[in-house]
């Protein structure tokens, strides 16, 4: 009944609806790229060696074959190789979009993409997560989105509080009370148990985009070691903010990465369950009310 709690509930509700799809995308893509370093290492570009079938083509001959294969593109760059038997990487450009291909230096045959599909998909998902596919402007928007997400977590924690007598009931999921109650319990319990992680991701997400306020704050309490900057405590604290956000803790950290992947999907689940609650509690009654008014007016 507290007016402030009701106001925070409305803020949490409408912020969740307005930014929910953004949170969903960031949640899913964040979990998808937790193992990106391992993917890059495993599927990283390895030199493709081809058999010599005659004299090696000159640069102009190879460029002519590339132009025949991609007549609508402009040959942007041909990367030289020290090994004469290694396939040549070529970039062709059209209207600001590039293709990265491998060509046989002896026959001029297109051998396929120089970057494996899994790496291109991983890079695209990473760009979506970091920059919203919008470069520096997208990253700035992402930073403000992290601020909104952190506020949603804080307001959600206040809205979650059911009172001294009932708070334990909000920590578990009850299956015997119907699917609507199950959805409510899922949202409530999952939100509580993952709250610390969600706030952590929100704060560290702000740091990734806007590091200077954190640098100044840490600098107020810790004097940097100018002679050993890598070992300086302030640098290690800030580095841990990045490690916590991306789940990179060093060798043998795959169990923690799995935890980061699973719990990283929590905001997406909270968005889905929140939309279902809004649908049941707000939209459906509003539609029924409007129908009753229309029927009464027609009668």
Brief overview, please?
This protein has 299 residues and is of the alpha+beta class. It has eleven helices and four strands.
Show the helix and strand layout.
Elements: H1 3-32, H2 36-43, H3 59-69, E1 74-78, E2 88-94, E3 97-103, E4 110-113, H4 117-131, H5 135-160, H6 179-193, H7 195-209, H8 212-221, H9 233-246, H10 254-263, H11 266-298
Helix pairs in contact: 1-4, 1-5, 1-11, 2-4, 4-5, 5-7, 6-11, 7-9
Helix content: 55-70%
Count all strands and give the number. 4
Main sheet? 4 strands, antiparallel
Distance between the termini: 38 Å
Which stretches are low in confidence, meaning pLDDT under 50 for 5 or more residues running?
none
SS element count, helices: 11
Content-based structural category:
alpha+beta
Average pLDDT level: 89
Query: What are the secondary-structure elements, in order, as H or E?
Result: HHHEEEEHHHHHHHH
Strand arrangement across the biggest beta sheet:
1-2-3-4
Structure description:
With 299 residues, this protein is of the alpha+beta class. Helix content is 63%, strand content 8%. Helix 1 runs antiparallel to helix 4, helix 1 (3-32) packs across helix 11 (266-298) and helix 2 (36-43) runs antiparallel to helix 4 (117-131). The two termini are 38 Å apart.
List keywords for this structure.
299 residues, alpha+beta
